[in-house]
Amino acid sequence: MARPIEQRRCHVCGQMSRCRVVEPYEETITHDGRTCVIRVPDLEIIRCTNPDCRPQQPSDMIILDDAAVRRLDAETYRQLGLLSPQEIRAQRERLGLTQQELQDLLRLGGNSLSRWESGAIYQSRSLDTLLRLAFTLPDALPTLRALPVARAQRDARGEVRSDAGGESVEHHVDDARCVG
Ligand SMILES: [Zn+2]
């Protein structure tokens, strides 16, 4: 059986100097185009305690095991103010919807919902808000079902395209007159 990670040699200095310690940890991430610092005051990590260890980056002396990664992940959702993957899945199942059904009702593109539920990507704040409304408003599902979907979008796009085609020529002529 493999030895626990803290009982293996430090990959930087090669000494048996790894220890489990609880210490403040922070990580910078980008969400919605903003830079956010996620801070955990008491993360249990594995650190080399050899004072002569000389890593290129201080973070090279630190190892996050699965439990630390899970904790950091949960803190990230909490500090970003987002529903966690588990919460999204639980709420969707409470409504008796498949991923595809909820995805269609919310007009989500691609496979966004499955990627949120697996934690592969963070949902934006605006879509997190949309999810919360769908999960909490009693009338949300009937309202979403009553909204026009694909055919209406196609029709609207078709109208816009033909109208805009004609108008844009006229506008162009008008603009030219004004400028001239
Ligand atoms: Zn070391």
How does this structure look, described?
With 180 residues, this protein is an alpha+beta fold. Helices cover 48% and strands 17% of the residues. It is built from seven helices and three strands, in the order βββααααααα. It has helices at 66-80, 85-94, 99-105, 112-117, 125-136, 140-146, 150-179, and strands spanning 18-31, 34-48, 62-63. A hairpin with a 2-residue loop joins strand 1 (18-31) and strand 2. It is elongated. It starts with 17 loop residues before the first strand and ends with a helix. The model is unreliable at 156-180 (pLDDT under 50). Bound molecules: zinc ion. Zinc ion binds next to loops.
Separation, N- and C-terminal Cα atoms? 84 Å
Helix segment tally: 7
One letter per element, helices H and strands E, the order comes to EEEHHHHHHH
Molecular shape: elongated
Helix content: 40-55%
Number of strands: 3
Biggest β-sheet strands, sense, barrel: 3 strands, antiparallel
Structural class: alpha+beta
Q: Strand content of the residues, in percent? A: 15-25%
Domain module count: 3
Tell me which ligands are bound. Answer: zinc ion
Reading side by side through the largest sheet, how are the strands ordered? 1-2-3
Rg value = 26 Å
Q: Which stretches of 5+ consecutive residues score pLDDT under 50?
A: 156-180
Mean pLDDT: 86
